[in-house]
Amino acid sequence: MSIxxxxxxxxxxxxxxxxxxxTTSDGVVGWGDATLNGRELSVASYLSDHLASxxxxxxxxxxxxxxxxxxxxxxxxxxxxxxxAIAAVDMALWDIKAxxxxxxxxxxxxxxxxxxxxVYAHASGTDxxxxxxxxxxxxxxxxxxxxxxxxxPGLGQIYGVSSTGPGVRYDYEPAKRxxxxxxxxxxxTRQYLNHMPGVFAQIxxxxxxxxxxxxxxxxxxxxxxxxxxxxDIEPYDLFWLEDATPGEDQTALRLIRQHSTTPLAIGEVFxxxxxxxxxxxxxxxxxxxxxxxxxxxxxAMKKLLDFAAIYGIRSGxxxxxxxxxxxxxxxxxxxxxxxxxxxQEYMPHNEQTLEVFQTSFTFDKGFxxxxxxPGLGVELDEEAAGTFEYAKAYLPVxxxxxxxxxxx
Length: 408
Ligand code: CS2
Ligand code: MG
Known about the structure:
There is one protein chain. By secondary structure, this protein is α/β, with parallel strands linked by helices. The protein folds into two domains: 3-104, Enolase-like, domain 1; 108-373, TIM Barrel, CATH 3.20.20.120. The chain contains 13 helices and 18 strands. The strands form four sheets. Strands 4, 5, 7, 8, 9, 10, 11, 12, 14 and 15 form a ten-stranded mixed beta sheet that branches. A three-stranded antiparallel beta sheet has the order 1-2-3. A three-stranded mixed beta sheet has the order 6-17-18, with no helix packed on it. A hairpin with a 2-residue loop joins strand 14 and strand 15 (367-369). Helix 1 packs across helix 3, helix 2 (63-72) packs antiparallel against helix 3 (80-101) and helix 3 packs across helix 10 (297-310). The longest helix has 22 residues, at 80-101. The mean pLDDT is 96. The structure holds D-mannonic acid and magnesium ion.
């Protein structure tokens, strides 16, 4: 048995996705997500122009050896493009192995450690009334945890806030089809720091203490600003404060830890375990935020999460709509199997996306389950995929009020 063909499928059902299709000499098909929001074609080219020929003829069962072959064999290692390409190959090979075994992937990862995967939704609103409406809507859908993002008076469109009205499902897509350059947003940290603690106080006032509240700082604060913010919001018992500072400055979190017990989550822009080494060994974070799609796949994520488990750190796998249903399914199989599960991000995909990707995971009262189909449990309809043309899209660029480029 060997890999007979490798195909890269770029499709855009409402947003861009890159998918890898690996087919064995016996006709078994495995799928992998290779979507990197705003830089999709770089990964598509890495796969089709550089990796595909290396894979033909390889034994599809040698997943670890293939991972090492692609990682060490590249010479130029790490980085979002390389690791998304390797992730797609890895996911496809695990999909094949589980299909050949006739079982859902989580069974190959040690079986279920829990009955379901607790998920959190994205509740947002330009003001508190819209945010409150969104939280109520998600609670009615059965969610027990919500990420809350809201507008800041004086600032226009900012990260994470739906501009399509109060946060309904899949209501926020950050990548814009803005022609040949990104759109721009304006930011002011001081206005944000002064505004947000009151929002959390209002949420606790209105929704009580049971609801798990998460918030995404989206990389924008300096270490001392983040330390102040994490301390100011401590009374509101957040499940986590995410990306309080730009994560590559790992030791910045030592300052936040000195001032606050607000749990911290980081890592959605990371792509290898080395990005986490200080954060994990010094217990500077409480949740690992990587996506399977951006961090080298199931093989690498399982090792990363097992490493984090030694330090009492749990999973918080990234799951926005720019992770395809295949990448989401890979996360769910890991979530179900590992012991140190924390929570799973879940932004439901739109109807067009679900025309292209046939999923088998299910949602029930705030929990997802990957399903018991052999493999990952997601199949891509190539005919449907072919009807959605790729269109270049960019994540916004952020500038401070004086025009200085800032982290988006
Ligand atoms: C966000 C992401 O889900 C999150 O936590 O940080 O939606 C992020 O903005 C997008 O993945 C960027 O493509
Ligand atoms: Mg985030």
